[in-house]
């Protein structure tokens, strides 16, 4: 008898835990595969409530590196893709995974470094020269090394310097293989220069004595794009709801919402849909 | 970096404020992990008891495999479950990816080998004491497993707690299959990972202290139940 009670209670507890609770059955939601920079900067928390209130569609954001976000979306695990690596995004659409790509907003990349500035690059606005100096002095440089949008942009810049960073990997060039925040945590702890998008940097809470060393080069332009995942290719995609989100974020209203997001008076993202 | 004292203060502040978002996250953590542990017990206890009590061909291999699976890396489990549940995976039509159910499945896979392997050990030792009695009374296999599990129930509570500890602390699996979606699949460990990546190290650590407090509470509650049950049994 006692035994039956024990089992009965366990079963009841299991049912109570497993079957109760919110957010299991609601159907009016979309999954947006996006990047850590948009999430860590707090942008989504600012703009999504506006969209959700107006449309009644709940937006569920999965924030990973751009490379992983694109792969997840190519598996059909998302209705909308919002990332920042234009060549990869165009390939995603060309491969038939996406319907069409639209510009959404931009910000820029910056290189942050310790106050001691071991490579003497502080104040430089020519990023290729600055990177070449870092390589020359073999000052530590922490790279994402994770196939993310930021990592891809960083590699494109290294290519222009002619420095073979792969050969220096493990030496002064250190690939963390992690997200932007984790790389900033690691980089600041080892006194390394780090290339980061400005939004993540402004909202980052563990800056130590780090400041922006290199900024303002047009080469460090960072464009974000939005793509509706193709329902033709992935029948489970909620095309209609996803389209509503895409339409909204490139609409005047969505663009104004992006522009209105500020931290300490600094605007983090600059809308440029339809430019 | 703040002193550890101020981090502790922040942690207690977080609990005292009773922030609805934090409560939601704690609730989901407990719901996912306790469900996973219960399911893992339903599978792992009889499995472990059977391996512990019976002699059959390949028994050593099964035991070795169970022990090895205790070391399953959460990230690998997360990837396996992701590939199964992905829209392009075999279980895609169930649409479980990025839901609490996906996290429960991943944690169940992580915890079941721990429950089974530890149960096997407990039951094997007990079976050695009981084997002659079972033989003389002519007890059938199912009743043997039942009797062994019942008589070892207090040790098995500790086994369940070991599984709970593993599940409540892991982040690698749930962040892949859950996606760390705010208000849907965000649990304590993924929140800590997120706050760390935002550079909010103090907040992350304070959340870690809260998680530790929850684990303490669950362990204390189970131990209290066990103690009162023991008293009742021998009163």
Automatic annotation (TrEMBL), chain B:
Name the UniProt record assigns to this protein: ABC transporter permease
Transmembrane segments: 32-54, 61-85, 97-118, 154-178, 203-225
Gene Ontology CC annotation, any one: plasma membrane
Compartments in which it is found: Cell membrane
PROSITE patterns: ABC_TM1
Keywords: Membrane, Transmembrane, Transmembrane helix, Transport
Keyword Nucleotide-binding: no
Stated family: Belongs to the binding-protein-dependent transport system permease family.
Swiss-Prot/TrEMBL GO biological process terms: transmembrane transport
Membrane topology recorded in Swiss-Prot or TrEMBL: Multi-pass membrane protein
First-listed, main subcellular location of the protein, grouped into a coarse class: membrane
InterPro entries associated with the record: ABC_perm_TupB-like, MetI-like, MetI-like_sf
Record CDD domains: TM_PBP2
Domain ABC transmembrane type-1: 26-222
Database matches in NCBIfam families: ABC_perm1
């Amino acid at each position: 008898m006692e035994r039956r009670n024990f089992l009965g209670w366990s079963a009841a507890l299991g049912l109570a835990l497993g079957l109760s609770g919110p957010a299991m059955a609601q159907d009016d939601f979309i999954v947006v595969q996006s990047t850590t920079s948009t999430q860590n900067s707090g942008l989504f928390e600012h703009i999504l409530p506006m969209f959700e209130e107006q449309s009644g569609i709940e937006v569920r954001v999965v924030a990973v590196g751009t490379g992983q976000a694109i792969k997840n979306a190519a598996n059909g695990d998302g209705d909308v893709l919002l990332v920042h690596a234009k060549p990869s995004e165009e390939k995603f659409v060309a491969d038939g995974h996406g319907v069409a790509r639209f510009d959404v907003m931009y910000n820029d990349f910056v290189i942050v470094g310790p106050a001691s500035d071991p490579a003497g690059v502080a104040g430089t606005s020519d990023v290729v020269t600055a990177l070449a100096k870092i390589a020359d002095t073999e000052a530590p440089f922490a790279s994402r090394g994770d196939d993310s949008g930021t990592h891809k942009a960083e590699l494109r810049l290294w290519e222009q310097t002619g420095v073979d960073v792969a050969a220096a990997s493990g030496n002064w060039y250190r690939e963390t293989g992690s997200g932007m925040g984790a790389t900033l945590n690691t980089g600041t702890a080892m006194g390394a220069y780090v290339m980061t998008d400005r939004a993540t940097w402004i909202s980052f809470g563990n800056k130590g004595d780090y400041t922006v060393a290199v900024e303002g080069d047009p080469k460090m332009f960072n464009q974000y794009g939005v793509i509706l995942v193709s329902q033709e290719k992935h029948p489970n995609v909620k095309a209609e709801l996803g389209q509503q989100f895409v339409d909204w974020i490139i609409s005047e209203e969505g663009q104004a919402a992006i522009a209105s997001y500020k931290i300490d008076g600094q605007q983090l993202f600059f809308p440029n849909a339809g430019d | 970096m703040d002193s550890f004292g101020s981090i502790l203060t922040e942690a207690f502040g977080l609990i005292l404020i009773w922030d609805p978002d934090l409560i939601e996250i704690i609730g989901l953590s407990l719901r996912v992990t306790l469900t996973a542990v219960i399911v893992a017990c339903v599978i792992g206890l009889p499995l472990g008891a059977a391996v512990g009590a019976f002699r059959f061909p390949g028994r050593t291999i099964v035991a070795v495999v169970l022990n090895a699976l205790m070391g399953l890396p959460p990230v690998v489990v997360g990837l396996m479950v992701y590939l199964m549940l992905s829209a392009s995976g075999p279980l895609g039509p169930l649409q479980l990816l990025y839901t609490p159910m996906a996290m429960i499945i991943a944690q169940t896979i992580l915890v079941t080998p721990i429950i089974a392997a530890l149960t096997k050990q407990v039951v094997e030792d007990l079976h050695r004491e009981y084997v002659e009695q079972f033989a003389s009374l002519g007890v059938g296999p199912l009743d043997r497993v039942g009797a062994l599990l019942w008589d070892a129930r207090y040790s098995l509570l500790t086994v369940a707690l070991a599984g709970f500890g593993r599940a409540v602390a892991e982040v690698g699996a749930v962040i892949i299959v859950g996606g760390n979606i705010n208000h849907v699949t965000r649990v304590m460990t993924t929140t800590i990972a997120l706050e760390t990546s935002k550079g909010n190290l103090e907040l992350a650590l304070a959340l870690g202290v809260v998680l530790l407090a929850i684990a303490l509470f669950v362990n204390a509650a189970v131990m209290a139940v066990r103690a009162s049950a023991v008293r009742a049994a021998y009163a």
